[in-house]
Amino acid sequence: MSIKAFELVSAIERLKLMSDKAKTQIECLDVCGKNIYVGTNDCFVVHYSIEEKTHANGRVTFVTEKQGHKFLLVKKPVVQLRAASALNRIMVLCDATLTLLNMFDLEPIVTGAKIKGVACFCINENPVRTNPFSVEICVALKRKMIQLYTVTEDRLMLLRDVTLPDQALVVGVDGVFVCAALTSQYSMVDTDSGLITDLFPIDPDQVRPIIKRISKEEFLLSGPNALGIFATSAGVSQRPPMQWSDGLSAVSFVHPYILAMNDEFITVHSILDQQQKQAIPFQGGVFLGDFDGRIFVASSREIYALVPIPFEKQIQALLSDKRVTEALDLARNANKTGMTRDKFLKMFKRIQQQAAFIQFSQQNFEEASQLFKESSIDVREIISLYPHYLPTNVNFTRSVPPLHEIADINQLSRSDDKVKAAYKIFLQTFLEDIRGVNQAYGYKREVDVALLKLYAESAPEKLSELISVDTGCDLNDCVDWLETYQRLHALGLLYQIHGENDNALSVWTRLVDSKKDDPSFPGLEFVVDFLARLADHELLWKYVDWVLDKDEELGVRIFTDRPINEALTERLRPETVVDYLHRFPRAVIVYLEYLVFQRRLEKEKYHTHLAVLYMESVMKLMETNNVRQEELDIARSKLRHMLQMSNLYRVQLILGKAKEKSMHAECAILYGKLEEHEKALRILVHKLKDYGAAENYCVVNSQGKEAGSCKRLFHILLSVYLDPSYERRDTLVAPAMALLNSSVAEFDTVKVLQLLPDSWSVGLLSQFLARAVRASMHNSRMTRIQRMMARGENLFVKQTFIELQQDATMMSDDRLCAVCSRAFNNPSFVRYPNGVITHVHCAKNKYICPVSGKLFGSRR
């Protein structure tokens, strides 16, 4: 595909060399700075000054002036010219002789240094030696040999001879490597080792040998079938071959372009993709060369410059043709043409952005996204293509000059809903990728608002996370959008984030009342949790009634799930809440349970109130027909737990109600609270016949009491079992024996024996008596052990006391306290085992020396 990379500009028109003779023609030329040297077919070297001028419209022209000429006397064509500015010399090859001329007056050097029998020569642009006042050249002789020379101002010093299998027709040199076109093949010569590597065959009659150095140790060679073949010093090719035109006569290289000339055209190829980019008509060309980035071409009578079109223009032309890959490849190599890094980066990023929009317009979304990210584009450039997605009060103007010609995605989609949806998915994915990274820095609001609008349309499940986590969404742009798409829960969250809690609650209550399907809305429980965290208590009370009417048990969590560190206000004092909840019977029970069981408030009115409500609930169930027994059992279980756990309620009040309904289990608990244990146990034994509960009663009601209370309760229970006045006392013998043999029960054996009927045999009581004897013996032995241990400890203390009394302590008026360094004013003092003496008040710890910190013992 074509692109205009160079423009042909006349440098010296209709050159008149020495006369008007038609036979005088250009053979070769060289350009060095502002000097141009021309070699002719009739043995003249002509010197011109040349100056390049760039006009305001960008057009380039050249101003030339002849400085002088020199006739070399041999009447043979000048085959090659090369200027060496560091030496002020020109190397001229004419009549197989290489000579040196002065650059300015074109006179031969005094020493007359020359080389004869030369077929061609070339300058080493990557010299082995680094002397700035010399030049290294490679000379191909008209015999099977090449020679390496160092050229100075007045000498040609031979460095090395290298013998070849055939004569070299053309040579190119880089460092120690020489690429030579022999009579039958190309070869790579290592001049250090003399190693010759054959590359590929060539027929000079069919193909003109051409060698052009491309980069370090890499050459471009003219091959068969009009191919340009790259070869490295290792003898391999690292680039694909380049297809040329037939009849090639010369090649030049200015990165990234290779120019090739034949009889009719100069073709321009890219080294990046080996493709032809431009063809410039040029007939009768005799010379083509590149000189420090400038390219000159000559016919037999005229000299032209191939002026490169600025890279920016070339790239823009490629972008206009939608040739994105070529444009980017060309742009990446622009920094190799002398452009400063800052200028290159600025240009390259803009080109990437333009390329990204082209890919975007062609729906190549992956490539577009990558280019947008690499070029650090202003994200608003992309969002602006989506109508109404930018915040309304954002003052944004697209880049000038414009990066694209896209009006909006409606233009690109052409009313195709699927295409439009694809563009929106791209924007969503792109914004999600850059959100929170440097590319979105400074544009958080624009990114978040655009994402909110995209989510509202097609991904409502993502709205909550976007709004709740460090959002940049504002109310002005988002409220109407969320209302339009009926994303009410997200709207409520947005109000909440912006501190408009009343509006948020209004939206959520509307959502609950309307029963609209919003999958992202958790429901009434979410509203309750929000109210439970709400610090604005006035606003909280505005919605309490509404919540409790919906669900009492859920609604009361507004008061029970408050933050732990919340400051208590008059509006949320427990008394205020309890009074308010009277209209909601289930809610008030739950709240009182919270006060009593969770907060453990020890106030009689809360405990009594809860107990009364439990009692009323049980009584109501008992009076109800067809009530499920399970439901009644649960209610009574909660009541009994409350009565047993709490000691703060008004027992007589509850007892009276329990007696009315013959609630024996509850009465037993209440009698226990009144310390009327015999009554409680008689109910459990005689009324309920629950002997396990009676035994458990004794254990529970003795916990936390003084020693012996457990034995006393078990004796009362045993006496109830053995009560002779109970008419069915025979039925209690088995429970009584089970009690006596229980491992939990504690008894005074003597008192038990006094209670037992005389008619009971020893065999019946054998288990109890055996256990009692063992316990008595164990207690006796333990008492003896404790007594002996106490005696031993007493002896040890006496010994320690005697040892401490053995050392006398002398106190005098000069003796000072070791801690405060003051005198002793009274006979009381403290002496530590290490001899340290202190005031009594200075001895903070009698086990640790206050001076040395030594530990003498520990408290027992």
Strand-helix topology:
Elements: E1 6-12, E2 26-32, E3 35-40, E4 44-54, E5 60-71, E6 78-84, E7 89-94, E8 97-102, E9 114-116, E10 118-123, E11 135-141, E12 145-151, E13 156-163, E14 168-174, E15 177-182, E16 185-190, E17 196-201, E18 211-215, E19 218-223, E20 227-232, E21 242-243, E22 250-254, E23 257-261, E24 265-270, E25 276-281, E26 285-291, E27 294-299, E28 303-308, H1 311-320, H2 324-332, H3 341-361, H4 365-374, H5 379-383, H6 409-413, H7 417-434, H8 444-458, H9 463-468, H10 475-484, H11 488-497, H12 501-514, H13 524-533, H14 537-550, H15 552-555, H16 557-560, H17 574-580, H18 585-598, H19 604-623, H20 629-645, H21 651-660, H22 664-673, H23 677-687, H24 691-702, H25 709-721, H26 733-740, H27 749-755, H28 766-806, E29 830-831, E30 837-838
Antiparallel strand pairs: 1-28, 2-3, 3-4, 4-5, 6-7, 7-8, 8-9, 10-11, 11-12, 12-13, 14-15, 15-16, 16-17, 18-19, 19-20, 20-21, 22-23, 23-24, 24-25, 26-27, 27-28, 29-30
3D architecture notes:
A hairpin with a 2-residue loop joins strand 22 (250-254) and strand 23. It is built from 28 helices and 30 strands. The mean pLDDT is 89. The chain is 39% helix and 21% strand. The protein has a 4-stranded antiparallel beta sheet, with no helix packed on it. 31% of the residues are buried. The protein folds into 5 domains: 6-309, 7 Propeller (Methylamine Dehydrogenase, Chain H), CATH 2.130.10.10; 327-442, no CATH class; 675-759; 761-806; 807-859, Herpes Virus-1, CATH 3.30.40. The longest helix has 41 residues, at 766-806.
